[in-house]
Amino acid sequence: MLSTTDTRTIILTGDRTTGPLHLGHYVGSLRNRVALQTIHEQYVLLADAQALTDNADDPAKIRHNVLEVALDYLAVGIDPELTTICVQSALPALAELTLLYLNFVSVARLERNPTIKDEIQIRGFGRDIPAGFLCYPAAQAADITAFRATLIPVGEDQVPIIEQTNELVRRLNRQSGRELLPEAKAFVSKTGRLPGVDGKSKMSKSQGNAIPLSASDSDIEAAVRRMYTDSNHLRASDPGRVEGNVVFTYLDAFDPAVDEVADLKSRYRTGGLGDMVLKRRLAAILREVVGPIRERRAELARDPDFVMDVLRTGTTKSRATTERTRELVVDGLGLFRLDW
Ligand code: ATP
Ligand code: MG
User: What is the DSSP-derived secondary structure letter of residue 202?
Assistant: First the structure.
């Protein structure tokens, strides 16, 4: 039985299997996972059940992307010897915990969640919001607590979901009269929300504004060429705006030469620096980030048996972990227990 006073740091993160991962995932979360896996116990969830909440008409896409996202994980350096990679739909305890948790959150509270509100609008659901979608914060609370995770490396958009998880945890702890489940902390990186190449909202798999980690050099160059800079910066000699300029946002996220970027910003502000110079620099940097990932990914894709083995091993281990928490919660809530 898991101890409820266990203070080890356990990490859980995951990604919806709606498409291959992109540079937003890389700076928002994947880089942190690679660093943290050597320090803490880490689980990474291929969230295919959650992907279904807004893709019920296309389960084939969700299934296909389980292996695609797993390849992305391995290609960026998530090491299956250090990180447990598992498949959400193959962990029945997560679904059972979700069902229990749904009784401890109101529909009004789910509707108030700012991330849910935004995402409903972006997806244009109108009044036809799939119930599973509205309720995904409860499912995410199930995921996090099932692993007894206390640290969650996520992008900024997920912070309200973790706040709601902690509300549920406090409610369940109160109800059971003991510290049944631990609260979790979001770990947001310096670039918590990378904008899409369209410069608008965040880079997202489902919004067609992403540079995937498998992008070719020419895809990268084309995406950077299309990026908005400052619409008033027509000639190189014109003074330009740095704030809200997507190319600079990307340089801040990816260019390791911070001092040089600061110098470019001041030259851009005063005038005398053309957009093409900046874009060439950014394209070169992104090619360097993506190139080795893409190559490693292609190599791994030639060995699907290895990837399947990683998922089988990780999911088997996770079944035991999540089942223990399910028992703990059923017990903590004082539900009927059959003495087998
Ligand atoms: P979808 O469009 O299907 O929702 P997504 O691109 O938003 O896909 P998710 O699977 O929802 O990706 O998110 C996985 C993780 O990556 C989350 O922690 C999320 O916060 C983070 N993330 C996603 N996009 C970005 C981004 N543009 N910048 C920073 N972090 C991001
Ligand atoms: Mg998302």
Answer: B
